[in-house]
Amino acid sequence: MQETIARVRLEIEAYDLTTAEQLDQFRIAYTGRKGQLADLFDQLKTVDPPDRRAVGQELNQLKQLAVARFEERQQQLESATVNAPANPTFDYTLPAVPQALGTRHPLSLVREEIVRILARIGFNVAEGPEIEDDWHNFTALNFPENHPARDMQDTFFVKSAPIPGEQAPAPSYLLRTHTSPVQVRVMKSQKPPIRSIMPGRVYRNEAISARAHMMFHQVEALFIDENVSFADLKQTVYYFVQELFGADVQVRFRPSFFPFTEPSAEIDITCLICKGQGCNICKGTGWVEIGGSGMVDPAVLEQSGIDPERYSGYAWGMGIERITMLKYQVKDLRLFTENDLRFLRQFEGLQ
């Protein structure tokens, strides 16, 4: 028994306690409930009574040695863990990791610039739903029942469920094809004078290409008051174009047709690529179209509850993508929706 105690003492004194894992193995092997010391105390009853007292003292000394070594090393490891740096391998002399900041989308930049320009002459912003009913999107804007814009190839219609208990069919809903329905909502909810702009997202069932997309953005302006004339429309467009593109950019109006305006006109500006000299972008004409305009049709005013005998007004609008392409000379419309960071980072720092 005493030879076993001497052997275990040598093992305890020589046991390597470098790591926490080794310390835990030491506890299991010697001081635990099933360790060697517990076995030796169980064997004490087999020792001859005259020798039992001396052997018991040696066992107590051995246990104190094992416990003292365990507790001492445990405190050392805990102290080293508390005082150790969070990342001992971190080099504090290295330069800081740069944090890449996001940038404003070019369409957002141009939209906000348009709003700022027109806000300076009294226009406020009005918004409306992107899912519209047929009346606001077409009928109230003087579109006849057989107008091509009502064709399924141009418009995304939303399937409508019948109204329970109603004999009349459910109203037809669609993704708005222009922001003009917002004009109708403004005219029905406000009394003249009205001076509002309507920026927003619109949808048309078109093939996606470098010059067209099924989803794009428009902004329209509406001014209704007494004695509003086409001259007011022209002066507003002149002001807007020169503020957005520069004082040297020329504007021209070409006669056109829109169901909700009469008379109507397309708006062209000097080609910003060739400065009016002619290029492939403007097809050699020196002019590029930016939008449509006209005097609000009296039938539209009447549909919206405004007296056409007393009030008149103008409306004009354009695609924000088209304006952005001209302003920043972007040649492919699809770049605006592809989220390519190489493209978007070109607009960093712009306001």
From TrEMBL:
UniProt entry tagged with the keyword NAD: no
According to its UniProt record, which reaction does this protein catalyse?
Answer: tRNA(Phe) + L-phenylalanine + ATP = L-phenylalanyl-tRNA(Phe) + AMP + diphosphate + H(+)
Similarity field: Belongs to the class-II aminoacyl-tRNA synthetase family. Phe-tRNA synthetase alpha subunit type 1 subfamily.
> Does the record carry Nucleus as a key word?
no
Return the InterPro entries for the record: aa-tRNA-synth_II, aa-tRNA-synth_II/BPL/LPL, Phe-tRNA-synth_IIc_asu, Phe-tRNA_ligase_II_N, Phe_tRNA_ligase_alpha1_bac, Phenylalanyl-tRNA_Synthase, tRNA-bd_arm
Q: Name one GO biological process term.
A: phenylalanyl-tRNA aminoacylation
The UniProt keyword set, sorted, is:
Aminoacyl-tRNA synthetase, ATP-binding, Cytoplasm, Ligase, Magnesium, Metal-binding, Nucleotide-binding, Protein biosynthesis
Q: Using the record's annotation, list all stretches that form the Aminoacyl-transfer RNA synthetases class-II family profile domain.
A: 110-346
What the entry lists under SUPFAM superfamilies is as follows:
Class II aaRS and biotin synthetases, tRNA-binding arm
Residues bound to Mg(2+): E262
User: What cellular-component terms does GO give this entry?
Assistant: cytoplasm
Compartment(s) of residence? Cytoplasm
What taxonomic classification does the UniProt entry list for its organism? Bacteria, Pseudomonadati, Bacteroidota, Cytophagia, Cytophagales
EC class, as a word, reads ligase
Q: Which GO terms describe its molecular function?
A: ATP binding; magnesium ion binding; phenylalanine-tRNA ligase activity; tRNA binding
Cofactor(s) in the UniProt record: Mg(2+)
What EC numbers are recorded for this enzyme?
A: 6.1.1.20
This one is known as: Phenylalanine--tRNA ligase alpha subunit
Q: Which organism is it from?
A: Hymenobacter rubripertinctus
**CC cofactor note:** Binds 2 magnesium ions per tetramer.
Q: How does it assemble?
A: Tetramer of two alpha and two beta subunits.
